[in-house]
Amino acid sequence: MRSITTFDLQYAHRFFGFQGEAQYLHGHTGILTIEVEDSVNEGVNMVYPCNEIQKVAWDVLKNFDHSLILRADDPLLPAILSVYEAQGIKDGHPQNKMKGIAFETELATAYPDSRLVVTKETMTIEGMIKIVYALLKDKLNIAKITFTSGVNIASAEFQPNKVIERCPLCGISLDESGVCPKCGYKK
Ligand SMILES: [Zn+2]
Ligand SMILES: [Zn+2]
Questions:
Q1: Measured between alpha carbons, how far is 85 from 62 in angstroms, rounded to an integer?
Q2: How far does the centroid of ligand 1 lie from the alpha carbon of residue 158, in Å?
Q3: Measured between alpha carbons, how far is 52 from 170 in angstroms, rounded to an integer?
Q4: Which ligand is nearest to the CA of 23?
Q5: What pLDDT is attached to residue 100?
Q6: CA of residue 118 to ligand 1 center, whole Å
Q7: Which ligand is in closest contact with the Cα of 172?
Q8: What distance separates the 2 farthest-apart alpha carbons in the chain?
Q9: Is residue 175 part of a domain?
Q10: Which residue segment(s) compose the domain that 73 sits in?
Q11: Counting ligands in written order, which one lies closest to the CA of residue 52?
């Protein structure tokens, strides 16, 4: 069975070099849907608590919310950084609080202080699914990711084959030593 949850992400981007309107900087509210698949954990009668998917994923997804997403070779990138620098907000600001955990994968690097994500490939809806899967595949048994941006929707299915030991009392993943980090249950 599957546990499914969605995330709202407001971001700006552009398709650098694309022959169309999307080569101009513009913004979206994107909706990301993550489907986690596993057996039903009998102790709690759940696959995986949706609020826990939210917590695990939002730690990194926060980087895409109220952010600018640019390809590494986009000349807007140094231009934006120099404006942020001159304005004194490049390395953070007291009101820049909802920051994600910085990450670096082969496909994307997040700079939470600048609310910037730099990507290797153009950040299309398909590109976003690849980035998100790479970020979360080791933490969640992801069966499907769907990303909606305006009238555009892309989805991809994955083989959820990890064995994730879950707490029979609260449903979340046990740590390496078989202890629940939330309620202290020990296997
Ligand atoms: Zn767009
Ligand atoms: Zn627990």
A1: 22
A2: 25
A3: 10
A4: 1
A5: 94
A6: 15
A7: 2
A8: 57
A9: no
A10: 2-157
A11: 2
Reading the block at residue 89, the tokens are: 């907000």
- What's 153's domain CATH number? 3.30.479.10
Tokens 């995986």, residue located: 48
For the whole prediction, is pTM greater than 0.70?
yes
- Quick check: is 125 in a domain? yes
Chain segment 98-143, per-residue pLDDT in tens: 999 999 999 999 999 999 999 999 999 999 999 999 999 999 999 9
Mean pLDDT, residues 79-87 taken together:
97
Kindly write down the DSSP assignment for every residue of 4-24, as one continuous string: EEEEEEEEEE--TT-SSGGGS
How much distance in Å is there from the Cα of 12 to the middle of ligand 2? Answer: 38
Q: 29 CA distance to ligand 2 centroid (A)?
A: 34
CA distance 49 to 39: 13
**What is d(CA 78, CA 83) in angstroms, rounded to the nearest whole number?**
9
Number of domains into which the chain is organized: 1
Give the model's pLDDT for residue 161.
85
151 CA to centre of ligand 2 in angstroms: 40
Residue 83 domain-assigned (yes or no): yes
Tell how far the Cα of 37 is from the centroid of ligand 1, in angstroms: 30
Dist. CA 186 → ligand 2 center (Å): 9
- Separation of alpha carbons 119 and 45, rounded Å: 39
